[in-house]
């Protein structure tokens, strides 16, 4: 395992990013979800095997690795089984670009290990397990039996440009506006050994949207979707997130069928049942839905019931797509400069020039709770308004003339914007 020489400078950029206060997609997983994933992926039952190699590509403050350490300690206490320090050292590789996260993860993990090992043994193990490095820029000479974790959900706008370029040059699935976790999926899947298993908890957006199509095609050609757990409405993370999470378990083994759980109550009994079904020890439980038609090249993954899927097929057959009839679909407020065009109620503007804005945060609870945000409105029923009739609007926009004229849309216009 090493950094390619040409990537060393980029890795330093990554560590600088990791040390900054900028958005890095740090959302930590709740303990019951961690335990469920370790069990259903087979990690829990594989800790005694000398061939087990576990990868955690973005470990944060160590939730998954700490739980692995607890499982090892429990095995030692319950069975008096002997694990050599060298064997334990070889079990795990965990990465993060934040030195602070790595330090916290090491401390918490060593505290667990010191319940049954000496201080020196625990120290040497955590020093072997944790790496302060950019996983996506690290070259590996080994493969892993298990990859598990919670890859960072970072929008491309928040990735430093030099790193975004480096990631895209390495990972062909990171197309269009693909967020950072897409690259984590590709690399981790490539690092699976022949019978390896990957289990990630992440947003479900990529399973259906356009930028996930390359990853879906990549998976269709080489991997099997063993388990999909829809966690819609659940508190899967230690902080609130504005996305729908799901557990996705993939492998190189071709089982042909996918087991699906919709919004289940996560507990140890369920994880035992799911593991038994996935390993063929039990027939498919009535808690699980079994499907054989989820993956089809780059097509969206549809997990609904039969009636919902039949309706979608009928609509696709009988009607053209929105794009085919000339519609364009956009996400978010395409202002070109949200800092100027999205304001609070205290902005000094004519009342007609402020339109109430509803964001995802305002409706997170299912009830509209306005946050007091407004969009600056430069239009009326006749098109763009004349600023001479709106002196407050004119004065407001004029102070931002320079930045507004740098907008992409402004470069296409020959007359002044304000």
TrEMBL record:
Enzyme Commission identifier(s): 2.1.1.72
Type II methyltransferase M.TaqI-like domain boundaries: 97-237
UniProt GO BP: DNA restriction-modification system; methylation
UniProt xrefs under Pfam families: Eco57I
InterPro entries registered for this protein in UniProt: DNA_methylase_N6_adenine_CS (IPR002052), MethylTrfase_TaqI-like_dom (IPR011639), N4_N6_ade-DNA_methylase (IPR050953), SAM-dependent_MTases_sf (IPR029063)
Reaction catalysed by this enzyme: a 2'-deoxyadenosine in DNA + S-adenosyl-L-methionine = an N(6)-methyl-2'-deoxyadenosine in DNA + S-adenosyl-L-homocysteine + H(+)
Alphabetized PROSITE patterns for the sequence: N6_MTASE (PS00092)
Keywords linked to the UniProt accession: DNA-binding, Methyltransferase, Restriction system, S-adenosyl-L-methionine, Transferase
GO molecular function, a single term: site-specific DNA-methyltransferase (adenine-specific) activity
Name of this protein: site-specific DNA-methyltransferase (adenine-specific)
